[in-house]
């Protein structure tokens, strides 16, 4: 912005002045790039309050992006997906994580994203287990073993955030692979790398390790913070994972979060089989009971052992313990809500004919911006954008469709 | 796919293109070629590497040949053997496609590669020889006509004896052993032909092994029947080789010089000779041995010497009489064929002993000249005068030296040519200096500039005019194309090479994304200008800032980085300074460092390890030199080169006397300003260096020009169009920290997923071409009358 002012003021007749001005302008040439992006044009002043706000066009643009993402997620439904995921998150805490291209530095952004991911992972896959490996000083350090408790992982990660030394792909891969070797055959094995480093410093040939990982049917995905590393891309290609490079901190978050829903299963990655599970009941321990071991609230239905939290494995008889909402939540990945159709494009004529007062059939608020409203294909109800997002990302059910099926089944029953 | 190219001039050409899609610039290239082919003229086209130049040229030429059978062979000249193999592989794809489309019968074509004996020989006894010269020598020893004749005589005589006894006697008995492959090939005679197809060197060797025919001579024999010939520049440009191989080619041929950005230097080298003390001493020894041979011949076989004398009296033009169908391949005249005088050899060198005496005198004279303690520079005319006055040898005698030597060696039935290398070099020198009075300079330097205390005299006969060597090619062949990724400024090449192109065009690369990011770093983070200008290049600040650039890049760029310096000495200097100041250690934290040296073996080992480091993700930096071997021939594509840094402007060594002589000549003859030529030459080298990282459209790479001089228009404007079109204002005049910011963003955006759909606008598939044709959108490629036809008639899948 200042640049424009400088050029505008260059009306002096003194040629030296003009030259200096020009030199000054070319010095700031790189600013022009940002000028061409015109980020300020997305802002507008609210006529009533005088505050700056992001204008409608930008909002719409972002909304569309988000919707497209939802649609592609819905499309991916129907494929076989692993319900029981055993995943390792490898967090790169090498020297490169201290760089400051993200504010305040990569380390804190990555730490934040990783913690958020761990929570979201258990939110979406309550039956799965996760462990954290950190890579620093050239070695792989198994921070937490595979387990089902998000808070334990997050706490461990918070305490470990300190970066130094080199990153070793081979060592981390080896640590993850050897640990994943022992998991039952129905579980899907995954590794997610969050990689800041642009190089890997390995003790041996990383390619033999990659081949071994491939043979062990471990799916490795990589989210790189800075740039594409050839060997990492090949690793994810070989093992059937995905590879992403972040553009900025928000994008990094998106990329990492994309790994929270279960990926489609490869043909022969897992065997389907029946798994024994227990549904423990919550029984408070009486104050004066004598207890050896953990003092949990839940009681294992098989051995009556005490467990702290769900889902987990019984510490005594190794039975998988879940609660029924967990099962239900894992289930929705198999049958996602189909993406809603855009409302405005189809019903232009309706709009013209005078029906202006459009109401969201979920939150019952009137819809001001019809271009963002959408319509369920099954029940033809119109939803506002916020509800659309809520239904797809949180609820995983169309309220009107499920209501209709409920009514129908009732009718049949009667 | 098949599509029609029409520039509105003459009949449209249906082009057979073996792939399902074509880049717009390829179509544009074909249009340019067609224009030149129609006009029977020459062309110079610049198109960035990675846009499929080779297949474009091949499919256009072959399609044109199919449509116009009167057009002769396609001669594709490459610089290296691997390039040659690549061309032939492309040709294979094209041939297969045409056969599929037209049926095997109509599309019977023969394409073959030709290289030296070393690359083609299948005789294990010969092929195992190390160097090219020794393979050549050994081959000649087995296949020269008189060797074979003698062997036949012996065989007739010794018919009774056993074969084993013969083998045991070996060479020293007068060359009794022979090459089975060559004999079989000779016996087959007319029947020894290659069936149509595409033959790489490997295929030729295999075919030769299977048939037991010598692949080298078979290939040379088949040149006159082939449709497409792929061989080295030398076979076309160097008169010594060209007269052997390329003399039988007809006028209607289409000649293509690929990677021709250095063609002027190749031309100049083909006509330049350097003589050192060592060479002259060797030549002196050769003369002694030649004398001995003459004496021996006089005693045993005087008839032959007398015959030769008779022949020489009758004139050199009749020398053809001597040519016998053997594998001897005698020395050929280094002078352009048109410049050889068709007259009798002067009397004073007709007799063998007289000629040898003249040679001896000449060598002595040269030795005397080399004793000079100061630098001398003179024109050929002055040299001849001085020579006539001091040694009594006139120009005309010198002019015939080479042919006379050839004739003598043939007469004496000498086969081990390498023994006479030094002598033939002297004769070569004599012939050139005797023939040309213009466009050459003689420069005598008593010592190397770098080591003024060590006497190392060298007499250089430097060709100054690149057009001399290539002129006959332009005159002889109907259409000659020079093409490369860097031919800018494109109007300078025709001037340098002395030809009038029908089309001279610089094509840009259409990209789906900005996959190349050139930038100019003019100052370090401390705002001090960086440059390799002579007065500031050793400034510790500049060196420090240069180091910081590399450290920054090592942090931001994954996998491989290549850095080019202006010279070996500067690289050594700067690296040792980096070592002292700890910059090198900082770089090594991120990546391994490899260095190019003057030793080829060492360098290839370094390159190999560099590639391994890139493959396994360790990341590496290769420090190299502009104008070096690596800068010219090695690709750093994909992860082998994500960024390239050009430190400084790679000017030639401007104090070199040869260069100064050439500059003066260029100014006087072609009115090219010294500074213009120097800048052009430096910038084309720089472009060549940075172009190493982009080898295809899917690739991406950062190109850093680290010198403040690149910011000026006269340097920047000389870069090829496909680089300048990406040199936006925001990437000019950057300081190191800003540049790293740009690099970071670039690396991130290039790593984003890249779908095939995105590439639609830079890729025409059949459907697209059809649609464009139907809409008339591609007006240029498809003119009005073609568009009137239904699209399905014009294009068939």
From TrEMBL, chain A:
InterPro entries in UniProt: C1-like_sf, Ssl1-like, TFIIH_C1-like_dom, TFIIH_SSL1/p44, VWF_A, vWFA_dom_sf, Znf_C2H2_type, Znf_RING
UniProt KW Signal keyword: no
Entry GO MF terms: zinc ion binding
Pfam short name (any one): C1_4
Compartments reported by the entry: Nucleus
Zinc-finger ranges (C4-type): 300-317
Coiled-coil region: none
CC terms in the record's Gene Ontology section: transcription factor TFIIH core complex; transcription factor TFIIH holo complex
Region of interest called Disordered, as start-end residue ranges on this chain: 1-22
Family: Belongs to the GTF2H2 family.
Protein name: General transcription factor IIH subunit
Organism, scientific name: Ostreococcus tauri
From TrEMBL, chain B:
Subcellular location: Nucleus
Gene3D superfamilies assigned: P-loop containing nucleotide triphosphate hydrolases
Keywords linked to the UniProt accession: 4Fe-4S, ATP-binding, DNA damage, DNA repair, DNA-binding, Helicase, Hydrolase, Iron, Iron-sulfur, Isomerase, Metal-binding, Nucleotide-binding, Nucleus
Main location: nucleus
GO MF annotations in UniProt: 4 iron, 4 sulfur cluster binding; 5'-3' DNA helicase activity; ATP binding; damaged DNA binding; hydrolase activity, acting on acid anhydrides, in phosphorus-containing anhydrides; metal ion binding
Tree of life domain: Eukaryota
GO terms, biological process: nucleotide-excision repair; positive regulation of mitotic recombination; transcription by RNA polymerase II
Keyword Signal applies: no
Domain spans labelled Helicase ATP-binding: 12-309
Cofactor dependence: [4Fe-4S] cluster
Catalytic activity: ATP + H2O = ADP + phosphate + H(+)
Pfam families: DEAD_2, HBB, Helicase_C_2
Enzyme class, first EC level, given as a word: isomerase
EC number: 5.6.2.3
CC per GO annotation: nucleus
Family (UniProt): Belongs to the helicase family. RAD3/XPD subfamily.
Protein name per the record: DNA 5'-3' helicase
Organism: Ostreococcus tauri (Marine green alga)
Lineage per the UniProt record: Eukaryota, Viridiplantae, Chlorophyta, Mamiellophyceae, Mamiellales
């Amino acid at each position: 912005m200042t640049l424009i002012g400088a050029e505008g003021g260059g009306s002096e007749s003194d040629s030296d002045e003009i030259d200096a001005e020009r030199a000054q302008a070319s010095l700031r040439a790189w600013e022009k790039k940002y000028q061409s992006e015109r980020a300020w044009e997305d802002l507008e002043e609210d006529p009533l309050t005088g505050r700056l706000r992001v204008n409608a066009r930008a909002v719409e643009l972002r909304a569309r992006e988000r919707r497209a993402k939802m649609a592609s997620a819905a499309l991916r439904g129907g494929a076989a997906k692993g319900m029981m995921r055993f995943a390792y998150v490898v967090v790169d805490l090498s020297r490169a994580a201290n760089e400051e291209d993200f504010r305040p530095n990569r380390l804190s952004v990555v730490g934040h994203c990783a913690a958020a991911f761990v929570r979201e992972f258990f939110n979406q896959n309550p039956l799965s287990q996760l462990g954290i490996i950190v890579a620093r000083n050239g070695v792989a350090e198994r921070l937490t073993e595979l387990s089902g408790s998000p808070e334990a992982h997050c706490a461990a990660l918070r305490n470990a955030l300190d970066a130094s030394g080199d990153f070793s792909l081979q060592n981390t891969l080896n640590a993850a692979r050897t640990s994943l070797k022992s998991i039952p055959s129905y579980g899907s094995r995954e590794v997610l790398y969050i990689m800041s480093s642009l190089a890997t410093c390995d003790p041996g040939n990383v390619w033999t390790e990659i081949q071994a990982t491939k043979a062990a049917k471990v799916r490795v995905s990589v989210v790189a913070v800075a740039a594409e590393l050839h060997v990492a891309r090949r690793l994810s290609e070989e093992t059937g994972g995905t590879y992403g490079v972040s553009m900025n901190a928000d994008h990094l978050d998106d990329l990492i979060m994309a790994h929270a829903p279960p990926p489609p299963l490869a043909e022969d990655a897992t065997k389907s089989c029946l798994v024994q599970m227990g549904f423990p009941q919550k029984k408070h321990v009486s104050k004066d009971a004598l207890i050896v071991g953990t003092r949990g609230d839940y009681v294992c239905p098989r051995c009556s052992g005490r467990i702290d939290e769900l889902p987990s494995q019984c510490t005594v008889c190794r039975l998988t313990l879940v609660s029924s909402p967990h099962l239900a939540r894992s289930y929705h990945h198999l049958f996602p809500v189909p993406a809603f159709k855009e409302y405005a494009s189809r019903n232009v004529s309706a709009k013209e004919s005078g029906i202006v007062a459009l109401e969201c059939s979920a939150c019952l608020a009137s819809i001001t911006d019809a271009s963002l409203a959408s319509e369920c294909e099954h029940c033809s109800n119109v939803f506002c954008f916020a509800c659309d997002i809520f239904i797809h990302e949180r609820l995983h059910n169309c309220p009107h469709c499920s209501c209709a099926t409920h009514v129908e089944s009732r009718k049949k029953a009667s | 796919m098949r599509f029609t190219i029409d520039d509105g001039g003459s009949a449209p050409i249906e082009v057979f293109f073996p792939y399902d899609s074509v880049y717009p610039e390829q179509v544009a290239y074909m249009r340019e070629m067609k224009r030149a082919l129609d006009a029977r003229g020459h062309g110079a086209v610049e198109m960035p590497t990675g846009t499929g130049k080779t297949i474009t040229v091949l499919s256009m030429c072959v399609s044109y040949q199919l449509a116009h059978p009167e057009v002769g062979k396609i001669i594709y000249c490459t610089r290296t053997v691997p390039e040659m193999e690549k061309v032939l592989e492309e040709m294979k794809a094209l041939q297969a496609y045409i056969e599929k489309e037209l049926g095997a019968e109509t599309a019977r074509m023969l394409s073959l590669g030709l290289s030296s004996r070393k690359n083609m020989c299948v005789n294990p006894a010969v092929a195992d020889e190390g160097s090219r010269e020794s393979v050549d020598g050994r081959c000649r020893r087995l296949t020269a006509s008189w060797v074979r004749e003698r062997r036949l005589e012996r065989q007739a005589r010794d018919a009774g004896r056993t074969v084993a006894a013969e083998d045991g006697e070996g060479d020293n008995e007068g060359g009794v052993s022979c090459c089975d492959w060559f004999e079989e090939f000779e016996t087959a005679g007319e029947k020894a032909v290659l069936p149509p197809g595409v033959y790489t060197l490997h295929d030729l060797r295999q075919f030769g092994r299977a048939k037991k025919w010598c692949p080298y001579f078979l290939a040379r024999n088949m040149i006159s029947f082939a449709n497409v010939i792929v061989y080295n520049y030398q076979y076309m440009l160097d008169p010594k080789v060209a007269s052997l191989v390329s003399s039988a080619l007809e006028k209607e041929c289409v000649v293509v010089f690929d990677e021709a950005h250095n063609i002027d230097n190749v031309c100049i080298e083909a006509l330049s000779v350097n003589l050192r003390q060592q060479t002259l001493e060797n030549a002196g020894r050769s003369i002694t041995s030649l004398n001995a041979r003459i004496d021996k011949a006089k005693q045993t076989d005087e008839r032959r010497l007398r015959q030769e004398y008779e022949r020489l009296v009758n004139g050199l033009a009749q020398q053809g009489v001597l040519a016998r169908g053997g594998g001897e391949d005698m020395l050929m005249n280094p002078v352009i064929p048109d410049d050889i005088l068709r007259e009798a050899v002067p009397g004073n060198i007709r007799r063998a002993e007289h000629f040898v005496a003249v040679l001896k005198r000449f060598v002595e004279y040269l030795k005397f000249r080399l004793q000079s303690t100061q630098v001398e520079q003179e024109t050929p005319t002055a040299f001849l005068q001085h020579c006539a006055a001091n040694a009594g040898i006139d120009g005309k005698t010198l002019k015939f030296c080479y042919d006379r030597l050839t004739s003598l060696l043939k007469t004496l039935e000498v086969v081990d040519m390498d023994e006479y290398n030094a002598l033939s070099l002297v004769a070569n020198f004599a012939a050139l200096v005797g023939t040309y009075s213009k466009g050459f300079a003689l420069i005598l330097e008593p010592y190397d500039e770098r080591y003024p205390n060590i006497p190392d005299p060298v007499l250089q006969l430097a060709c100054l005019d690149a057009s001399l060597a290539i002129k006959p090619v332009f005159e002889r062949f109907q259409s000659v194309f020079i093409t490369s990724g860097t031919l800018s400024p494109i109007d300078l090449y025709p001037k340098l090479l002395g030809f009038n192109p029908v089309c001279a065009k610089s094509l840009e690369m259409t990209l789906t994304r900005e996959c190349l990011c050139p930038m100019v770093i003019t100052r370090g983070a401390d705002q001090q200008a960086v440059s390799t200008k002579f007065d500031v290049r050793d400034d510790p600040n500049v060196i420090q800032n240069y180091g910081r650039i590399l450290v920054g890049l090592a942090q931001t760029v994954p996998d491989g980085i290549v850095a080019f310096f202006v010279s070996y000495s500067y690289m050594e200097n700067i690296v040792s300074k980096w070592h002292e100041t700890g910059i090198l250690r900082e770089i090594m934290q991120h990546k391994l460092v490899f260095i190019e040296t003057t030793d080829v073996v060492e360098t290839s080992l370094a390159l190999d390890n560099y590639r391994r480091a890139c493959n396994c993700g360790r990341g590496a930096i290769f420090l190299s030199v502009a104008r070096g071997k690596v800068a010219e021939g090695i690709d750093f594509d994909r992860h082998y080169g994500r960024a390239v840094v050009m430190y400084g402007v790679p000017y030639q060594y401007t104090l070199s006397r040869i260069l100064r002589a050439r500059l003066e000549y260029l100014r006087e003859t072609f009115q090219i300003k010294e500074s213009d030529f120097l800048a052009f030459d430096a910038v084309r080298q720089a472009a060549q260096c940075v172009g190493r990282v982009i080898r295809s459209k899917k690739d991406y790479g950062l190109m850093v020009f680290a010198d403040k001089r690149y910011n000026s228009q006269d340097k920047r404007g000389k870069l090829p169009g496909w680089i300048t079109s990406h040199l936006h204002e925001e990437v000019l005049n950057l300081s190191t920290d800003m540049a790293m910011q740009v690099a970071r963003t670039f690396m991130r955006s290039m790593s984003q997923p890249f779908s095939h759909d995105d590439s639609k606008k830079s890729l025409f598939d059949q459907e697209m071409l059809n649609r464009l044709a139907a809409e008339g959108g591609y007006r240029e490629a498809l003119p009005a009358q073609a568009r009137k036809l239904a699209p399905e008639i014009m294009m068939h899948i």
